[in-house]
Amino acid sequence: MNSKKLSDISFSVLDLAAVAEGRTPADTFRNSLDLAKNVEKAGYTRYWFAEHHNMVSVASSAPAILIGYIAGNTTSIRVGSGGVMLPNHAPLIVAEQFGTLASLYPGRIDLGLGRAPGSDQITAYAIRGENMNASYHFPQDVESLLTFFSDENVNGQVRANPGEGLDIPVWILGSSTDSAMLAAKMGLPYAFASHFAPAMFLKAINLYRQNFRPSGHVKEPYVMACVNVVAADTDQEAARLATSLYQFFIGVISGRRKLLQPPVENMDEHWTIYEKEAVNQMLGYAFIGGPEKIRTKMEDFIAKTQIDEVMATSHIFDHQARLHSYQLFAEVLKSANPVLL
């Protein structure tokens, strides 16, 4: 197998629709559309939203609606979920929603599926009620969803209209070896959440590749890694911008959630030694720096993992700095002349 290089890798965006201090979800959604239009010009492959609930700083609680908003105001970039937390929903409803999206925007809709609730346990109960063990039915629910999309379900008693017979790529998302084995068994592309759960990444993608069974969906294993990216003109500026990301993860670890905070000059005034260590562990695959530092780290990452695609998520407080970060990241990954935003 030939070793991949930077220009071989597709690159995409994961948008958590982070709400910045002093802003509203409406502001966030407008910024998401602006970002989507810009990354489309810059050559990004897809633009995904993740499903989260009961988080003041994350506005992507209804990804299907946001997918329609972005797809309806762009022209070519693929738009999808990274992911829909399937245990929160009936497979039929997901099939109908994404069948509707794929009918409106043919050839542009992706459906990434996860088994976690995308929230805390109290919120999960508010969503699922007594169906708190829904995650254990995840493999069967994925099979059910694939059946609803299939032509073979034409004689089924329950059918997804729209949805049946449409070409909607289904991905398995995960942060563990369980998800890797499921994606391999079903012959589906696999997206790993290395942006917050790096510990199992290498083991999971190796298991996926070793156990992959070709299917009618994809013939060879396909690995996408989601990573944190904060790019700027200099390493020093990127390090300053990244303090917003660190503060976001402190909220994840401590439960003291806030809106996305502006950068600070000295993080040691804002986290404990324990929090710093925990954040650094969660950010094992974070690419923070100027273009040359990003390039070197990405080359090492690709050589080590041989991924097929990288999906960047960027918790950057200032919208223009976020746009610039995605532009710089695209320039690093492309061998052609950059497309200026």
UniProtKB/TrEMBL annotation:
<dbReference type="Pfam" id="PF00296">
    <property type="entry name" value="Bac_luciferase"/>
</dbReference>
<feature type="domain" description="Luciferase-like">
    <location>
        <begin position="11"/>
        <end position="303"/>
    </location>
</feature>
<dbReference type="InterPro" id="IPR050766">
    <property type="entry name" value="Bact_Lucif_Oxidored"/>
</dbReference>
<comment type="similarity">
    <text>To bacterial alkanal monooxygenase alpha and beta chains.</text>
</comment>
<protein>
    <recommendedName>
        <fullName>Luciferase-like monooxygenase</fullName>
    </recommendedName>
</protein>
<keyword id="KW-0560">Oxidoreductase</keyword>
<dbReference type="GO" id="GO:0005829">
    <property type="term" value="C:cytosol"/>
</dbReference>
<dbReference type="GO" id="GO:0016705">
    <property type="term" value="F:oxidoreductase activity, acting on paired donors, with incorporation or reduction of molecular oxygen"/>
</dbReference>
<dbReference type="InterPro" id="IPR011251">
    <property type="entry name" value="Luciferase-like_dom"/>
</dbReference>
<dbReference type="InterPro" id="IPR019949">
    <property type="entry name" value="CmoO-like"/>
</dbReference>
<dbReference type="InterPro" id="IPR036661">
    <property type="entry name" value="Luciferase-like_sf"/>
</dbReference>
